[in-house]
Design a protein that fits this description.
With 97 residues, the chain is mostly helical. 80% of the residues lie in helices and 0% in strands.
Amino acid sequence: MLEERAARWKNEYIMLGEARGIEIGEARGELRRGKMVLRALLRERCGELPRELEDVMEHLADVDAVTQLTLEVWRAASLEAFCEKLRRAASGESARQ
């Protein structure tokens, strides 16, 4: 009985670990895709992007911030205005300010 319970717990922990791994992978993929869309829209609107801008975008880790910045591509009056929103987002502030 104890062996059966231990085997069941082991299988449950394995399944939880697999589920968590899948969740993490999906989140990373969503973030990666969001950054790709953000870069594509910025390039479409502004042309070639400064390396500094690319570097800041690469270090964004919050998918919600990336989504908000994607919307800001069309709201910002200029690339400089967008860069200010990007800097705020990278420092943890809201991009909509």
